[in-house]
Amino acid sequence: MPLRNVSVFLPCHTLDDFPSWLEEADADALLVAWTSAWHPAVIAAAGSRPEHASVDLPPPDDDHCGIVPPFCEERFAAQAGPDDAGRWVRQAHGLDASVRAITAILGVSVVAPENLPGESCAESFFAIGLATLLAELLACRMRTEADLGTTGFDAAVVAAAQAAVAGDEDAARESLNEAFACLDASRARYYPVDSWAIDLVLAAPTTPGSRLVESLASPVPA
């Protein structure tokens, strides 16, 4: 059976008890496991956005494959069966190793060994993957759900990944913008406050250019 769903195994039963107390190394490993599943080559091959599962519960036995943070290996091994080891990424250290391991399981073909399909857009997908996790965690703290499934988010993410893998960066950016808009619309339901992005540039007063020096000296923000 082809593998068409990707799960990231988290050291919690649900997001309600997500471990915000991890040490730095384990927190980094958890973040790597989650974001690696959001590489456009992974999403395009799976045809769906990544899910999260619990390392303390038996893993899905259908068409799932998944990524296990290395520090969760012992807990995961107690639940996983011996016959499906080839479906799980285990003991992969670092983002690059995790991405390549999961794409290999999904059968992603690589023309150039150093580049996976969609690599030029990968950072944007990692960013929306992190934003999605944070949105879901914030929704849990607010005693509700992000409910992204009703916003068109999933379709936009998959469309963006497919465009990125096909080399159509313009279409990928357009669909990514749509996905980020869905995230923002979802946030408005459980955390209805205005938000702004601030671009802060720091420069020394001695930087050449009189116009720049005058701008820095002005009490009015540029």
- Low-pLDDT windows of residues: none
- From the N-terminal CA to the C-terminal CA, the straight-line distance is 58 Å
Number of helical regions: 8
Label the structural class: alpha/beta
Task: Write down the overall mean pLDDT.
Answer: 86
Secondary-structure element pattern, one letter each: EHHEEHEHHHHH
Determine the strand fraction and express it as a percent band.
Answer: 5-15%
Q: Tell me about the biggest sheet?
A: 4 strands, parallel
Rg over alpha carbons: 20 Å
| Helical proportion, percent range | 40-55%
Broad shape: globular
Strand order of the largest sheet: 2-1-3-4
Number of strands: 4
Word description of this protein:
The chain is of the alpha/beta class. The protein contains 8 helices and 4 strands, in the order E-H-H-E-E-H-E-H-H-H-H-H. It has helices at residues 24-36, 40-46, 73-77, 95-105, 122-141, 153-165, 169-190, 210-217; strands at 5-10, 51-54, 64-67, 88-89. Strands 2-1-3-4 form a 4-stranded parallel beta sheet. Helix 3 links the parallel strand 3 and strand 4 (88-89). The longest helix has 22 residues, at 169-190. The N and C termini lie far apart (58 Å). The model has no long low-confidence stretch (mean pLDDT 86).
